[in-house]
Amino acid sequence: MAKKLVIKVTAGADAPERCSQAFTVAAVAVASGVEVSLWLTGESSWFALPGRAAEFELPHAAPLPDLIDSVLAGGRVTLCTQCAARRGITEKDVLDGVRIAGAQVFVSESMADGTQALVY
Fold first, then answer.
1. How confident is the prediction along the chain (120 residues), in pLDDT tens digits per residue?
2. Who's near 85: CB < 8 A, 6+ residues apart?
3. Predicted TM-score (pTM) of this structure
């Protein structure tokens, strides 16, 4: 079994089930003791901003703010550098604990021994 899980979520409110699944898997993995690195890219980039996750709704799904809090408490959340720049998001704008990093860091994390990468 992988000791680390790297999850890239590209979907936001535009594909709510896919988005929710990525955050749910990340939160469950953290709760299961797996080291998790969750990457926000594309439309999920908006969830790096305070209050934006509270606007997300999907029936029969865990609240997105709770899932993000779980991942931040026990894992790492990263906002894609290019995605942030395209949306005018800076480090001063994001939730506490969210870092901004680029493709080189994603590739490095994904290729590490004992790591499983998933993309939603």
1. 568 999 999 999 999 999 999 999 999 999 999 999 999 999 999 999 999 999 999 999 999 999 999 999 999 999 999 999 999 999 999 999 999 999 999 999 999 999 999 999
2. none
3. 0.95
